[in-house]
Amino acid sequence: MQLNVLPKQSRPREKLLKQGPSMLTDAELLAIFLRTGVTGMNAVELADSLLKQNHSLHNLFNASLTEFSAYKGLGEAKYVQLQAVLELSKRYLKEQCHRDTIFTSPDAVNDYLTIQLRGLGHEVFMVLYLDNQNRLITDEVLFTGTINSASVYPREVVKAALKHNAAAVIFAHNHPSGLAEPSQADKIITKKLQSALALVDINVLDHLIVAAERCVSFAQRGLI
Fold first, then answer.
1. Keyword Protease on this protein (predicted)?
2. Are residues 104 and 207 in the same domain?
3. pLDDT in tens, 93-105
4. Ramachandran quadrant class, 120 (left: phi over 0; alpha: psi -120 to 50; beta: rest)
5. How many folded domains does the chain comprise?
6. What's the pTM value of the predicted model, to 2 decimals?
7. Residues 110 and 195 in one domain
8. Helices 26-34 and 12-19: crossing angle, nearest 10°?
9. What domain range includes position 48?
10. pLDDT in tens, 21-56
């Protein structure tokens, strides 16, 4: 069925304008992005089919150009548009962190770190540098490792934190395997970093691990 023959309240664009974006399903939101369907499927049906084939938005959004273009109704132009949307989302969240967010709980950074780290095929170790009111000064990826591990050096972390005049830090790294549980090595390096930074009066507020579908907080687990 063509979207223009559906009742107005059932059309994604009209539904969004009347009820707000949070009331739309994943397929309806994706349909607005796609704008048009293909032969035999309207935009919502196409979006629903793509989500079922990929099993999640995450898999669809992290597909390569070749993988993305292999699906009926998608191509280079849509891939470019999607990547632009994702990058704008990252920059928006980062801007909000700089302006508004006060990092006093793990929930405040989950969205930001998830969009930054989820989907990477290699492991990275990221540090968020905070001022004395726990607001974001800046962040950076300090170490990049293989798909299995990243080498993290406490001396380099201390130097970087002092360079940015941080009063506190939050660590984050991803697990490309998709398993978010902290390993024994993760726990050991976190303790080493805490001890090293304590010598220069810099607090470690949390260490978060980002995997495919989860974000695990050391603070919430009582590990910090």
1. yes
2. yes
3. 777 666 666 666 6
4. beta
5. 2
6. 0.66
7. yes
8. 120
9. 3-95
10. 888 899 899 888 888 888 888 888 888 888 898 888
